[in-house]
Amino acid sequence: MNHKSANLAIISNNTFEATKAVNLDNYDISSALQTTLEFNELIAIFSSKIAHKIPHSAFIYTNTEFALEVKSGVFTRHSCNYALKVEQQQLGELKLMRNHRFSDGDLQLLETLLCCLIYPLKNATLFHQALKMAYTDPLTQTHNRASFNDTIKREMSLATRNVKNLSLIFFDIDHFKTINDTYGHDCGDITLALGAKWIKESLRDSDIIFRYGGEEFVILLSDTDANGAGLLAERIRTSIENHTIAYGMETIKITASLGVSTLRANDTIESFILRADKAMYAAKNKGRNQVVLAK
What residue range is the signal peptide (predicted)? Predict the structure, then answer.
């Protein structure tokens, strides 16, 4: 059985107030869900708290806005799906699974219990939307410098703890000032936005791109050694070289210089970044439009 509901919607405060009396015995669930704004924690708490009322062996939660999939448990053939929504705001989709059918009574109870989850999910959505805006460069739609500062700390800690490789690519558009001076800042902005787009097209899902400042971007590569980072940097360089920008009646060819560093045991954040930055400037000093691996 696969029971689908297009929307579970609490569309007004009146509707929400009307559900409160029904949910007085679910105070423990609601209280627990107020303790976090992380999607994965919310779904795990909800699953755990309802398990004695609606036994299930697994859950899958997806949220396309944040490219998120959270799943846990033993996946079986019977499931029920709910697209979660409140006041026209999409909150993701939740699927519960188990090895026997969900009865109509189970589904009615689940829909009541989901009322406890809706507003915590909305709060989490608003929080992560604000965080995304604060950490996004509006021109290039890449992560910004503040995001980089937070992310590199986390990734270096994870790489050290798990004995994994971590690499960094510094990317700078060649002769960017000349483009600005010759064609104007609008053309410069277009160049930056397109450059970021072409970089993204070369990246893997696990790679993260940041606008570091001006025409400079940084790409953080988890679980990637120097050889792998060098190959990716060369792929990005080639992609940039093979594109042409059409601006007014002009066509503009751009190139980029890239520097690569890989995390060492004694690295600080500053030394890790500095090696990549120096390698990038070495690429420029050698004639631009090339990749240099830090020694």
Answer: none
Phi, psi dihedrals of residue 171, rounded to the nearest 5°: -130, 130
- CA-nearest of 261, 281, 280, 285 to 271 is 261
pTM reported for the whole predicted model? 0.69
One-letter amino acid at 281 equals Y
Is the model more confident about 27 or about 43? 43
The backbone torsions φ and ψ at residue 254, rounded to the nearest 5 degrees and listed phi first, read: -120, 155
Question: Catalytic residue positions?
Answer: 215
Q: Which tens digits make up the pLDDT trace of 168-205?
A: 999 999 999 999 999 999 999 999 999 999 999 999 98
CA distance linking residue 166 with residue 172, whole number of Å: 20
Query: Which residue type is seen at 27?
Result: Y
**Strands across the sheet containing 256-262:** 208-213, 216-222, 166-173, 256-262, 291-293
Which residue segments constitute the domains of the chain, with CATH numbers given?
A: 2-134 (3.30.450.40), 145-293 (3.30.70.270)
Give the span between the Cα atoms of 152 and 147, in whole angstroms: 9
Strand partners, 166: 222
